Each structure stands twice: as C-alpha cells, then as structure tokens.
Amino acid sequence: MSTTNNTFNLTATAHGAGCGCKIAPQVLKEILKGSVSQPSKNLLVGNSSNDDAAVYDLENGTALISTTDFFMPIVDDAFDFGRIAAANAISDVYAMGGKPIMALAILGWPIQKLPTELAQKVIEGARTVCAKAGIALAGGHSIDTLEPMFGLAVSGLIDIKDLKKNDTAKEGDLLFLTKAIGVGVLATAQKRGLLKEEDRITLSHQLTQLNSIGEKLGKIKGVTAMTDVTGFGLLGHLIEMAQGSNLSAIIDYSKVPKIESVSFYLKQNTIPDATFRNWNAYSAITEISPEVDVMEAFNLLPDPQTNGGLLFSVTPAAVEQVIELLKNNGLQNFIAPIGKMIKKEEKVIRIEKSLSS
Q: What are phi and psi of 86, to 5 degrees?
C-alpha cells in the first residue's frame, strides 16, 4: 500500500474505470468484423477465438504467449492503480496456463492535469507486482493523454502440451472460479464516494492478487479450457467459452462466490454502466430460473471484473486433483464447482438456483 498522501482522486479524472473501460461487446464485434489473424503455421492462437492472448509456436515444444491490457484508474491511489493494472495484464498469460517472463509498460498521462509524481507511483506499483510475478518491467512507451491510463504488454512461455484455450471445454465438464465477483459494484461505490474503508481494503486486496494458480492448472491435463473473468463479467466470459466449445453451460447460482458486502451497495443501486451494456449483449442467449434472485443475478453476473478470477472447466475425473491444488494454494474457498458444461441448447447459458450433485 502506498503511503504517499495522494490528494488527487484518480477515478474522478477518467470517464471509465478498470476493465469496465472495455468497448461494449456488440460494438467490439462490429469493429473486429472481418479482422482475422493472417494465416501462419506457427500461430497457435490468434484473434479468431476471443482468447486471452496470442500464442506463437517456437518449434521446440514451447510457445510464446503475447498479450496487452490497459485501462483508466479503478482506484484513487496511484500506487495501487499501477499494481492493479499490472496484475490484470499478467493474468492473461496465467489464463493460458503460461509463465510470464517480461513486461513493457503502456502509460498515458494528462501532464497538464496531474503531477508526474503520481505517474511515478503508478510505475512503482507496477514494478512491485512484476517483481512478485518474477518478471522485469523492462521498458515501455508513454504519451500525453486527456485521461490517465496504464497497463502492460506481457510475454510468457508455455509448454505446448500444457496450453489452455477458452474454446476447448467438453460436455460434462465442471466449472470453477477462483475469485469472488462484485468488483465492479465496489469500484462504482468508490467512485461515488460511498465505499466503506473496510471494503476499500477488500477491493484493493482482490484487485492486486496474481492469478498465478493458472500456471499450475495448465499442467493438469483434465483442465480442458480456461480464461480470466474481466470486463464482460462472469456471464460474458462463460458465454465465450461455451460458444467457442459449441456447448451450453449451466450456472449454479448458489455456488457463485460473491464479495460479502456487495449486497449492501446493490441496495443503493450502485451499479456500473458497463453492467447494463453487458446484459444487453447477452440477455437474449441467457435463461434465468424464476427461483433465482433475478435482480441480483442481473447485477452481478454481467458485473465487469478487473483482474477477476480464473474460470476453467474440468473433467469429472480430474476434479479431486484440482480441488487438492486449490486447497494447497490458499484457494480453499473456491473448491465448489459453480456449474457445468452441457450439450448445446437454444440458450447458451442457463442460470439455476442450485444444481443436484
């Protein structure tokens, strides 16, 4: 945590926040229409599958993972902003099952509005997280912008046999999620000056946690598909997984981990704008059981996450191995499956109150 007296509320200087800055799903689809990676025998993953990173075969049994991610401030503290943006960008390598090896900074800073000392704090925060991940922040690029923004371009390595993609789930697989959802709600509460101090600490802690478990999950053959949950919410990223795998999925709403205090802020109608745009993009292919708290599910499942948890599918035979790994890595609160992959139905996602074992 930074000890600098930050008199600037960074979230007030930007119109967006964290991964909620993402362009709306339908708009992005229009932008990328016809924009498909050029054929290459070495390109194992390009932009045709909406995956977390590009992957290039190095022809020695390993592959290079390449990704970039940046956004506007989701917290007011500059040091924490750097930490969060770095952890979020590195997560894309972990989501492929890979090991990060190097990062480059991407900085946009409104020089006329904010002091350079705050930009230094952003970089300092990013360095601390890169060091925790065991990689160097080796350089980067900066420009003078109207609003502050920061992120990283990250490179990683992976044994090709361990590569995890987001479109390779199998029917009957169980679904796991390694972090609670509700980050967008708490971040919106902070921007509106409503966030309690104890919840600010909770938010900062979750946003800066590395998804390093992904590298270990990559080595488990029974983990069939993996992605990280970010700006499109749990619902949107599960839809990408299901559609890419030509399947549907059932969410056991009773098992979805939620930040404990999120209900307090929902009662105050503290909902990110991105939640509505996400829901508008996904509502036609989502079915919610009448037994589910529909309003809460609407507010949380499309809630834009920043550096959210890893969402992954597991064959029934490998579930015990995965649970043991999660327990041994401090993730014992996330050992209950939140759903399962099923044969393709008319709706891509079905949300039930609970599923029978």
A: -70, -50
What range defines the domain where residue 340 resides? Answer: 174-352
Q: Do 206 and 308 belong to one domain?
A: yes
The answer to whether residue 108 sits within a structural domain is yes
Judge whether 5 lies within some domain.
no
pLDDT band at 13 (very low <50, low <70, confident <90, very high): low
Same domain, 198 and 345: yes
**pTM for this prediction:** 0.91
Structure token pair of residue 209 = 């946690």
Indicate if the pLDDT at residue 158 is higher than 70: yes
Asked whether residue 239 falls in the same domain as residue 292, the answer is yes
d(CA 218, CA 263): 34
* DSSP 8-state symbol, 19: G
Helix (H, G, I), strand (E, B) or coil at 85: helix
**Which tens digit of pLDDT belongs to each residue from 186-241?**
999 988 889 999 999 999 999 999 999 999 999 999 999 999 999 999 999 999 99
CA max distance for the chain: 59
Percent of the chain with pLDDT over 90: 79
For residues 185 and 296, the answer to whether their CB atoms sit within 8 Å is no
Q: Is 89 exposed, middle or buried (0-12, 13-18, 19+ CB in 10 A)?
A: buried
Distance (Å, whole) CA 157 – CA 60: 12
Q: What is the pLDDT of residues 219-230, one digit of tens each?
A: 999 999 999 999
**Burial letters 247-261, b for 16+ CB under 10 A, else e:** bbbbbbbebbbbbeb
Active site residues: 19
Residues 189 and 263 in one domain: yes
Question: Would you state the pLDDT for residue 63?
Answer: 97
Tell whether 111 and 206 lie within a shared domain: no
Give the Cα separation of 33 and 35 in Å (integer): 5
Question: Are 189 and 84 in a shared domain?
Answer: no
Contact present, 302 and 184 (Cβ < 8 Å): no
